[in-house]
Design brief:
By secondary structure, the chain is an alpha+beta fold. Helices cover 25% and strands 28% of the residues. It contains four helices and seven strands; from the N terminus they run βααβββαβαββ. It has a seven-stranded mixed beta sheet with strand order 1-2-3-4-5-7-6.
Length: 172
């Protein structure tokens, strides 16, 4: 379930989802989840994750279904001035298409809105229709394209939406 603060509350997926803020020493866990979700050329290692987590304005949330004993996905974003960017979203293969990605997106949109962001941006591979469907279903629209952006030569679609506090995450 998604919820208030670093914990979570009523989710939109088939199973209740828990989301908690990742701490500054979550690099190895995030790197493991990233490796489970991305091809070798696109994986971020633990030192890279720890460097990002130490940067001002960076926030990350770990997510899992209540029945799972460990996190099965995470999202990391950065808020600078009135803009926010999703740096990465990773969901383990065995946890996909169960609402976890959508819950993580809602959590980060809420975090961005609470920190004053007026726009939320991300890049997604033109060769990844599943991720594109997730983002479009969450209200993102294409605003640009970066040619041959990814290691496999695929273009990056630049998507954007207005972040809004998630009703289930708002204080009572």
């Amino acid at each position: 379930m998604l919820g208030n603060g670093p914990e979570s509350g009523p989710g939109s997926g088939p199973e209740p989802v828990t989301i908690r803020a990742a701490g500054p020493f979550s690099g190895p866990l995030l790197a493991g989840l990233h490796a489970d979700a991305f091809p070798p050329a696109e994986r971020w290692d633990a030192p890279a994750m720890e460097t990002l987590l130490s940067m001002p304005g960076v926030v990350a949330g770990l997510g899992w279904h209540r029945a799972a004993p460990v996190p099965r996905g995470f999202i990391m974003g950065r808020v600078v001035a009135d803009e926010a960017e999703i740096l990465t979203l990773a969901v383990a293969g065995d946890a996909r298409r169960q609402g976890l990605g959508h819950a993580l997106l809602a959590w980060l949109a809420d975090q961005a809105a609470r920190r004053g962001a007026a726009r939320l941006f991300l890049e997604v591979s033109a060769a990844n229709p599943a991720a594109q469907a997730l983002y479009r279903g969450a209200g993102f629209a294409e605003i640009g394209r970066r040619r041959a952006y990814y290691p496999d030569g695929s273009d990056a679609l630049v998507l954007s939406r207005v972040p809004a506090p998630h009703p289930a995450l708002s204080p009572p």
